[in-house]
Amino acid sequence: MNASIQDLPRSRPARAPRRGLALLAGVLALLAPGAASADAAADGIAHAARQIEKHRAKPVFVAPGAPFDAQKCAAGRKMLSVPNSSANPFLKGIIKREVEVGKQLGLTVQEWQNQGQPSQWAQGVEFAVRNKFDIVNLISGVDPKTLEPQIRAARAAGVKTMTSHFYDPSQPQNPLVAASLPVGFNAIGKLLADWAILRSNGNAQIVVIKSSEVPPTEPLMRGLRDELAAHCPKCRIVNEVNVGVTEWATKIQSSLQSALLANPGVNWVIPIYDSMSQFVVPAIQITGRKGKVKVATFNGTPFVLDYVRNGDVDMNIGESLDWIAHATIDGYLRALCGLPVPKDIGVPFYLFDAGNVKDAGVPAKFDQGYGSDYVAGFRRLWGLAK
Predict the structure, then answer these.
(1) DSSP string, 213-239
(2) 180 vs 142: CA distance, rounded Å
């Protein structure tokens, strides 16, 4: 008798192959996070390399505005430059160059010497009013918010208060300020992170030295943290050492020594303003970490470029102090004469490391290594070129 289909014995599932597939899927699931992590690390290093490469070419001058008669605007005018502290060599260098650039145009530039106290900044603004200055230049770290009564009095007297090298473009300027020339501090933070990512092969363990009271610190630190989070899964900021500007000489070295001793895995220190480096380098040497802990920083102050040449600092994001002086006076004169003010200070960043730092001079100088294109460029803009 023929059997019906229903009467035929049913075959059992092939359990062994299914178990094998399940095991394989489990292994792939275990391997996938590691593979993804490795890909993310490699992608982050490649991203950092691309960002670094953008700042290895010599800076090129881009006109910040239309040509104008700068000598006519400057004739008989006076500017008082108030740094956040006269002990800061970076700011001293800028003001020194402002004095020289001012002489070319007939603008008298004077520094207000101070030790970083807001009461001293206030006295500077009052001095400018009494002595009939035309411009008060609050430079890099002097917060207009702390001087509002004095700035109001200055404005009433016809003295324009301006800021340079202070705000990030993302930060609104104080409404009492007549003009501002921001700097891309957020971009600087990202570039510092990129250097540490690239040079550590994606494993930077970082101590940051910062001064939170200085308003540009916040966007710079945001850029640093965001870039590490987005492009370096193994990188981390181990410690953020906050030291007030007036305490750099007394607290940076001891605080960093403590941080390095407490965290033997640290391989990078980022002092976000390079004049801090004079206290960072001794701390690394005293703790026996020279060669194991590298330093990346920002500003391009000549003595720190000498540290790069000597191997004590790995990289410095440089800005030509002479270029900053030219750009500051250009922007302020435009404001003084009712012309449109540039949207930022317009000074390119240029990376100095062991491969190119000799271009800055031996010893390094304020305005070497960046080329001289900007000098001729400003002279043409100002009507000084023959």
Answers:
(1) TSTTHHHHHHHHHHHHHHH-TT-EEEE
(2) 12
Residue with tokens 């002479």: 322
- Tens digits of residue pLDDT in 316-350: 999 999 999 999 999 999 999 999 999 999 999 99
Instruction: Give the number of other Cβ atoms within 10 Å of residue 264's Cβ.
Output: 11
Q: What is the 3-state secondary structure (H, E, C) of 201-220?
A: CCCCEEEEEECCCCCCHHHH
**Going by CATH, does the domain composed of 70-183+320-347+371-382 fall within 3.40.50.2300?**
yes
Per-residue model confidence as pLDDT tens digits over 108-147: 999 999 999 999 999 999 999 999 999 999 998 899 999 9
Q: Give DSSP secondary structure letters for 47-97.
A: HHHHHHHTTSSPP----SS----HHHHHTT-EEEEEES-TT-HHHHHHHHH
Please give the structure tokens belonging to residue 244.
């007030």
Report yes or no: 155 and 176 within 8 Å, Cβ to Cβ: yes
pLDDT for 366 equals 84
Task: Quick: pLDDT tens for 375-386.
Answer: 999 999 999 986
Residues 6+ apart with CB under 8 A from 31: none
pTM of the predicted model over 0.90:
no
Listed by start position, the domains of the chain span: 70-183+320-347+371-382, 186-318
CATH superfamily of 186-318: Response regulator (3.40.50.2300)
